[in-house]
Automatic annotation (TrEMBL), chains A, B:
Protein name: Aminotransferase class I/classII large domain-containing protein
Record flagged with keyword Transferase: yes
An MF annotation (GO) of this entry: pyridoxal phosphate binding
Record InterPro entries: Aminotransferase_I/II_large, AspAT/PAT-like, PyrdxlP-dep_Trfase, PyrdxlP-dep_Trfase_major
Amino acid sequence: MSSMLNFSVSAAVEGTEAPPIPRAQAWGVEYLENPSYGELLGLSQGVPGTAPHESVLKALSAVSADPLSAKYGPILGETALREAYAEEIRVQYQLSPSCKGKGGVTGQDIGITTGCNMAFLTLIMALCPAGKSSVLIPLPSYFNQMMVFSLQSVKPIFVPCDTTNAFKPSLASAREYLSSPDRQKEEMKPKMICLVSPNNPTGSVYTHEEIKEWYDLAKEFKVALILDETYRDFVEDSNGDRGIPHRLFEEEDWRETLISLGSFSKGYRIPGHRLGSIIAGPALLKHLTTICDCMQICAPRPPQIALSTLLPSLRPDLTASSKALSKRRHLFEDVVNSVEGWNVASIGGYFAYVSYPSDYSFASSTLGLKRKNLTSEDIAKILATKVGVVTLPGSFFMPPTSDDEAWENDVLKGGEILREDKWLRFAVANVGDDVILKLGPRLKEMNKLMGLGE
Amino acid sequence: MSSMLNFSVSAAVEGTEAPPIPRAQAWGVEYLENPSYGELLGLSQGVPGTAPHESVLKALSAVSADPLSAKYGPILGETALREAYAEEIRVQYQLSPSCKGKGGVTGQDIGITTGCNMAFLTLIMALCPAGKSSVLIPLPSYFNQMMVFSLQSVKPIFVPCDTTNAFKPSLASAREYLSSPDRQKEEMKPKMICLVSPNNPTGSVYTHEEIKEWYDLAKEFKVALILDETYRDFVEDSNGDRGIPHRLFEEEDWRETLISLGSFSKGYRIPGHRLGSIIAGPALLKHLTTICDCMQICAPRPPQIALSTLLPSLRPDLTASSKALSKRRHLFEDVVNSVEGWNVASIGGYFAYVSYPSDYSFASSTLGLKRKNLTSEDIAKILATKVGVVTLPGSFFMPPTSDDEAWENDVLKGGEILREDKWLRFAVANVGDDVILKLGPRLKEMNKLMGLGE
């Protein structure tokens, strides 16, 4: 019991890490008090860097003036938006418009939520009884998802990503885990496999073939496959055009296994309006309606109404954003890989996962620090406060406790290399190419500061 | 496992009742197919009946055109809105503007959520570990709160309301329960007392003195007092003006025990924009920030920015709404009480709890029904489908199972009379006085239909 409160707070909440982004932003503020190298380069948060399309702002303004938008709407979203969004999904995933057979996606398969974090929490509440559930999830993991597991007392079983193969998660480890005799009882089986593609934090983009293997695994072991596709609008094909994220919606029985989450925050650049989506079969959406009624009643209505007629007209804008971001990612790779000791390990969507020079970890003496073996958080802090480049350390995406025993218990085999903790997440979407160009000289200054190459 | 799904849905979710409002609305649709007595009188849902103030619509429109509002905002709300709302609370509760001492309310005590249901769920997540918690709550109870308990595996212990005293909950029963030797161990003690005033569903408005007794009880037994004040803008003083809901914020140490929930949906008539509030001490808000980050990231930004400068100018509008509603409640009482056998048992805020003629329960033969002892759901359905008056039956606000054993187990003593199940909830806020006037003849038609007074 906190000394300030006359009642007790749940241990699960007490034990959940605070949101980490404000911590990184505080480092940036520290730099700004003594900006040695010019402006702060804010590469920590995955937010759109530009304003919404002019037509979206116009529609939002017009709709908000209408008293109708101030009323409650349907729990799972405006019918018009659900229909319109289903059509966007059919176009992007190149599905037959008639949705013949059971494959395809219709408005009945769409639920609109107040952002994608809420969509994820809703699913955890729907499928994972607190204190009695586990889920399979690749490591590194998005911190908000780990926070949800902690808050809801759900145990994550981490599937290690292959650091030498663009941070793809190990299907073999997951299969071995699911196949173990201990896991055959219903109550010992994970409730779901959670994938994020394009990934947060690593930027890794899984191919259709890879996602299909996970789908088949989920199907075989009768667990749900949750695919967080927040960054689906930034999947690139071999020409740099907007690509097809996967072909699972063509499966006749996808609704029995797959749940796909999405966001309007990134593609349409309206995070402040809070709109996300769940694509799932009506048999599951029925249950999610009950949860959503208790959580949101309905998602905010004005952006729903505003977008419901605009979506087809925004396709060229999505394509243009996707191409611009693709160009920026290539520029980022060129810039970062050209600096001694820096290496882009994986990149895609909004993010890049980058390793810094291995000597950094041992730079304590150069910096006059007492501690040896600097962590990624140490490095991220130095990078932000000293040279004004704000990123998130890889440690923000690792389990909160990582002593040997906890590691053995929580992380499937093959992941030891992740303990090297030598990565930083760069968000590349919220800045212009000019900022990326300034990054090269800053990283070189960082190398100097850390005693490298002198 | 549902035959349509290849994975299992949590038993807590499977076992939670679906949102009941759509069921009642379906009855209204059935009436509209054969509207014998004219228009449908929709008195089921607690929603504002008129448009937001013109200045609110204007500000919402202007703010939504600004790309800034499309960006993420702070997790617990815009600083400007938190400050402005604290000032509104100080004005409404007549607190000293300087907030000297620890009493009073400041912006630091305010958290902005995506509606009040979300505020409530956030608190249940914060204070009630799933599967190991109980809460004390008056019966009848708001169904969304009961659904949250069910979803999160929290056990409600129902404190019966006194049907002969405006549905005030029995403090003595609650005290006896908390004092029982079995309840002295921390893990056997309820985590909180939840009150709603003005109440949903009963309309009962608790006086300051009554609320203070509950506060003292919570303090004595070291549990939290959650006060849902969604309808706080419609508390009326003896002159019919906007009254002071309670004086707990004057207590020097209120932050150690009290948590007050609110909504912008009713007073400002913007439910579709989804804004709610939590008033609590910073020691608790720190934990709620972690949960809110995982649930909402931030509440929708445009209504927050729009309202942050408007609130003081809207006070006359709030007063006018409150007075109009007060007049409507008096009209409603006159109309309903003048019909034979109908009686307004309690009324306040948005709702009235009304008993129908006792002979109704035995009207099966008149209606040609086989079943005897008609429930309030039967009566509400007949009232809606036959004479076009849509209300919610009292059974929607009772425990889902009410067999003798469950009742004994869940409801504290003194509540047997509630099993008579002879009440209907009328929402009086969303219709004009003209609709209330039409209600009298309809209730008389209902009496005829049920074989009364012929």
